[in-house]
Design a protein that fits this description.
Oligomer: single chain
Number of strands: 16
Strand content: 15-25%
Structural class: alpha/beta
Shape: elongated
Number of helices: 20
Helix content: 25-40%
Length: 503
């Protein structure tokens, strides 16, 4: 269903069964199950192609002792991952298991460490691993190879957890809520990148594999040639009607709900955007959108702070005020970009990081600091677009770039004009006056060398101009990446360090 017809070649089918604890009746039980299921063990693994892409693929089968992980399951997975590392192939494992195999006791437990160690070596060589979590994925499998993917997919409704629901209910003496530990629950809580219907798995996996070809280039564009930005008639009319904007006018323009959002630019600049979710620690923050896309054939990691373009979406996305888990999701995706040698492009539009009790409890300051710390040293090009409000550390946490570009009517500041006036003058009503002295506009910041480029808005960013603005961004992104062809990863990190060291 997933592998191309006729391409699957099973590996390690003759791995020797033993009874490590001399558990009574275990050998006989294995023979009975083998005869009944026609399976040799609880996992089948080997080489295949998915839409032509070579891959090592394994499937845990619940018909064989609930897909439990005995020493043969662990050995086959470890051997296959080691072989994939040698052959420089990605690994996909379809997980379905009740956990450890009780008849093998402590030896079963050791398989968790063995498979995890093999995957660590695979990852350290820059190779892709995707677990697909099916129903159920629990126990020692969840606490080892099932949760160690670069990208983790799950089937709808799959039960995913360490302890089973019955064990939890017996332990706490309470009935669990509906949907607890299901795939959708894990997506919301940040542990799964995407929930994918089985019928869509082959297409999704093929797309991910194609985005992870091992190119060392940052400009592997499939569409060559220079394209110029020519505003259409509506755009030209828009420019002719545009009036001069004061600093305060720009503050208000940057805050407009109708201003194009990160996803508006992502959908126009890039092709095939695959959104991934979660910080792998606590939750998926809807205020931060991130994933992989193609810039005319070049894989790129794209991250944006999404305010929303309606009151309903703004509420759902917390008005673009990211929580710690949002910054940690962004950092996880940026680390992947470095691992797989992809440029990073961020779109920033936030009044600031979320200020609330839960944000402080989860370490808002640490999350922002960690992004600044890690982003300073990434060995890939980082381009940051300030597309609306750039509010303080919450904006800077996604703007430590080699290049920072700013839209003509965007703002970028140490805090809001209202906050500035309140702190310095004890009078927030002087916000308009504060805006005039804070140097927060694109042209001010260009003069201060805080940004490298001012992106024209052709009269103001809205539904009329968004296509033209996006084309401008796309052309200049391609030109910049093409111009960096001779630079090494160390060059990008050094350049970024020196950029911020100057201030």
């Amino acid at each position: 269903m997933v592998a191309d017809a006729g391409t699957f070649e099973p590996w390690f089918e003759d791995t020797q069964e033993t009874n490590p604890l001399n558990f009574p009746g275990y050998e006989e039980k294995l023979v009975q199950i083998q005869e009944k299921t026609k399976l040799k063990e609880g996992v089948t693994i080997g080489y295949a192609r998915i839409d032509g892409e070579p891959v090592v693929i394994g499937v845990c089968d619940a018909r064989f002792l609930m897909g439990s992980m005995g020493h043969v399951v662990g050995e086959k997975i470890a051997c296959a991952v080691e072989k994939a590392t040698t052959m420089r192939l990605p690994v996909i494992l379809f997980c379905c298991s009740g956990g450890a195999r009780m008849q093998e006791g402590i030896i079963s437990l050791m398989q968790m460490a063995k498979t995890s160690a093999a995957l660590k070596k695979h990852s350290d060589t820059g190779l892709l691993y995707i677990p697909v979590l099916t129903d159920p994925t629990t126990g020692g499998v969840t606490a080892s190879f099932a949760m160690l993917g670069d990208i983790i997919l799950a089937e709808p409704g799959a039960l995913i957890g360490f302890a089973g629901p019955r064990v939890i209910e017996q332990t706490i003496g309470e009935k669990l809520p509906d949907g607890f530990q299901r795939a959708e629950f894990q997506l919301e809580h940040g542990f799964v990148d995407a929930v994918v219907e089985r019928k869509d798995l082959k297409q999704t996996l093929a797309k991910i594999l194609k985005y992870h070809h091992g190119s060392q280039s940052f400009h592997a564009f499939t569409k060559a040639g220079s394209i110029s930005v020519i505003p259409d008639e509506r755009c030209r009319e828009h420019m002719e009607k545009a009036e001069f904007k004061s600093v305060w006018d720009k503050v208000k323009a940057a805050r407009q709900v109708t201003r194009p959002a990160a996803t508006d630019y992502i959908s126009r600049i890039f092709d095939g955007f695959l959104e991934f979710h979660g910080d792998r620690q606590f939750r998926d923050d809807p205020a931060v959108v991130g994933g992989i896309a193609l810039l005319d054939g070049q894989p790129v990691t794209v991250i944006g702070i999404q305010k929303g373009t309606s009151m309903e979406e703004c509420t759902q996305r917390n008005f673009g005020m990211a929580s710690p888990e949002g910054y940690r999701k962004a950092l996880r995706l940026m680390r992947q970009a470095e691992k797989f040698h992809r440029p990073i492009v961020t779109f920033v539009n936030t009044s600031g990081a979320f200020c609330g009790m839960e944000a402080e409890e989860l370490g808002q300051g640490e999350a922002i600091a960690r992004n600044l710390y890690e982003m300073s040293a990434f060995k890939v090009p980082v381009i940051c677009m300030m597309i609306g409000e750039g509010g303080s550390g919450g904006a800077l946490a996604l703007a430590v770039g080699n290049q920072v570009w700013m839209m003509e009517n965007a703002t970028y500041s140490v805090l809001s004009p209202e906050g500035f006036a309140s702190i310095l003058w004890k009078d927030s009503s002087r916000a308009q006056e504060a805006a005039g002295v804070m140097k927060i506009t694109a042209h001010d910041l260009y003069d201060l060398h805080v940004v490298e480029k001012v992106i024209p808005e052709y009269g103001g960013a809205d539904e009329v101009t968004v296509d033209t603005i996006s084309m401008y961004m796309k052309i200049h992104l391609k030109e910049y990446l093409s111009s960096q062809a001779e630079k090494s990863g160390e060059d990008f990190a050094k350049e970024r360090y020196e950029r911020f060291r100057r201030f």
